[in-house]
Amino acid sequence: MPLLDVQDLSVVFKRRGEQPFAAVDGVSFSVEAGQTVGLVGESGCGKSVTSLAIMGLLPKRGNSVSGQVLFDGLDLLGLSDNEMRDRRGRDIGMIFQDPLSSLNPVVPIGVQVAEVLQRHQGQDRRESTRNARELLDAVGIPDPDRRLKEYPHQISGGMRQRALIAMALACKPRLLIADEPTTALDVTIQAQILTLLKELVNGTGSALIMITHDLGVVAGLCDTVNVLYAGKVVETTERHRLFAAPRHPYTNGLMNSIPRLDLPRGTPLTPIRGSVNDNIPWREGCAFAPRCDNVLDVCLEGTPPLVDDGYAALRCNNPVSHAQEVAS
Amino acid sequence: MTARALVEVRDLKVHFPIKSGVLFDRTVGYVYAVDGVSLSIPKGGTYGLVGESGCGKSTLGRGLLRLTEPTDGEIIFDGQDIRALSGEAMRRQRRRMQMVFQDPLSSLDPRQSVESLLVEGLKAHGLAKDKAATSRRLREVLDSVGLPASALRKYPHEFSGGQRQRIGIARALILGPELIVADEPVSALDVSIQAQVVNLLEDLQSSLELTYLVIAHDLAVVRHIADTVGVMYLGVLAEEAGADELYAEPLHPYTKALMSAVPVPNPTVEDRRERILLAGDLPSPANPPGGCRFHTRCPWAQPTRCRDERPALREVRPGHRVACHWAEEIAEGRIRPHEVEAELVHPETGPAELPDELTPQAIL
């Protein structure tokens, strides 16, 4: 049984006087213990809303969440607020994009890390502070004794992100959700944080859901990659396969539109035309159809199904063929 | 490289005073945002400036246009030192140098229609006298950035991010500039849109013979677009070379670390590559380390020279300038990297006291 099994998750936002909007539209994926799963897509594809729905962090009003989020066989969506609060931070940890706005500016770092231990493991102040110090040390914060007493504004962005990771790891969660954890950071600091995350997954055997728009980060970190477009998974496969032969026209378009350091300079970029504003609703066809070069008539006749052919799961009527790459 | 330089910057410095005090504005120190940078951009060329946040690359771009007044140095634009120009003369020169900003939503006035945004520049330079000609010019510029003429009556919020950046580019182009300073032109855009804007910038360069200074933190984008790339660290140029040369063989330890940190969308490459992880964070530009500015984090730092002698940017190979005392030795593998202890860096105060002894177990 997978550690986390997300089945047909949908999040529909409703506003008075407007059409309901499905930010997440029937997303299914699963995460095994010790595995790193990537959710990839551009802004508005629903990747962050998916993570918030799993964590039960969406506002109570204005939206409806349906489907199942089975954690160890138990549906998290059915839990009460109190039960969920017990699990959050203990079984599932989360790392957000912007560490400055996720940390309390008027509470020292040490207190914020220790608080997690006091809340979930019933440790007293002395014990939790000692453990907090160890956690800061473990995530590579120099001079942790001094850092414990400092406030978030006194430390750099990379250190804040480390402190946030320390908080997320405090109770040794079995699942860690990282939502764009390195997007706000410089590349050298990003490399430090990614290395740290990789070591943690390998060292503790916890699972990681990595949410990012950066294909480079995915290539180095994730075992399985789910590519999201307009709230639906359009391609799911193992990372080597995905990067060797991206078969959904959207995935393929993404790969062709990024300048890459591993290709000769002067390789032309082929952008995807239009923007997400050109999408059509899924019920009328493939949302990507207006931007797609491979579009067929059938693409405008209802949602294409997600079909798993053993190599990849693909939601496309006319995938890109990579005859040579696949054969080799 | 043989073309005449359109812009030449000599030993440019931009220092910001740090003020303190209740009754008197005492200057208690300076932020050395740009501290002696020299570079030149040939006519029709593209110079890419990379570096991490806080390295002074944006300040350099603004200083070059005198949007932020430089503290010292010379800016030779088309044979003329524009730092010597007074207000009105400078204003007339501004026609020839324009800027494209990072975030098109905050750099475009939400209450101005696209037409008014574009005409503003023409009016400021007294070029909007003939109505028919103005309207022709507007259409021409919009067409060149790939927007329909109907865009003129719309407002910035009615466009997507990529289209907004096109408006920002159109605004820079309307006066027919020769130099465009683009500060992070694509970093606010989605990946699939980035390529559209990068291609647009390249097409415009060849059709309008523009000269670019492109400032970005994304090394892959800069390699794609620039002929010459300069790497900045704490207000100074660490290395400068042709794009192919720099990426194929970076010589400065900082450039090496930067290159090795960029994630590549290729799992096979990612699985094999070795990262040079830098210890700690960027020291504060208000209190930069003495000697080589990178020595506090440098895995190749040596006990001599690095700490007390500021390395000059010297030409190690033709067209390849490096500010490192030991560039040749490192390239030949005679100096090996060693562990560096991460040290404390405070955003306001800079690094804590330096350890008395750096302990490199290196050298041959």
Fill in the keyword field for this structure.
heterodimer; A: 328 residues; alpha/beta; Rossmann fold; eight-stranded mixed β-sheet; four-stranded antiparallel β-sheet; 12 helices; 12 strands; disordered C terminus; B: 364 residues; 23% strand; globular
What's the tally of helices of chain A?
Answer: 12
Structural category of chain B: alpha/beta
Q: Overall mean pLDDT score of chain B?
A: 88
User: Largest interface, and how many residues on either side?
Assistant: A-B, 52 and 54 residues
| Fraction of residues in H or I helices of chain B | 25-40%
The proportion of residues forming helix of chain A, as a percent range, comes to 25-40%
What is the N-to-C order of secondary-structure elements of chain B (H for helix, E for strand)? EEEHEEHEHHHHEHEHEEHHHEEHEE
Cα-atom radius of gyration of chain B: 22 Å
Largest sheet of chain B: 8 strands, mixed
What fraction strand of chain B?
A: 15-25%
| Overall pLDDT confidence of chain A | 90
Largest sheet of chain A: 8 strands, mixed
Task: Specify the number of helices of chain B.
Answer: 12
Oligomer: heterodimer
Q: How many discrete structural domains of chain A?
A: 2
Number of DSSP E strands of chain B: 14
Pfam families (chain B): ABC_tran, oligo_HPY
InterPro entries (chain B): AAA+_ATPase (IPR003593), ABC_transp_ATP-bind (IPR050319), ABC_transporter-like_ATP-bd (IPR003439), ABC_transporter-like_CS (IPR017871), Oligopep_ABC_C (IPR013563), P-loop_NTPase (IPR027417)
Organism (chain B): Planosporangium mesophilum
GO biological process, one term (chain B): transmembrane transport
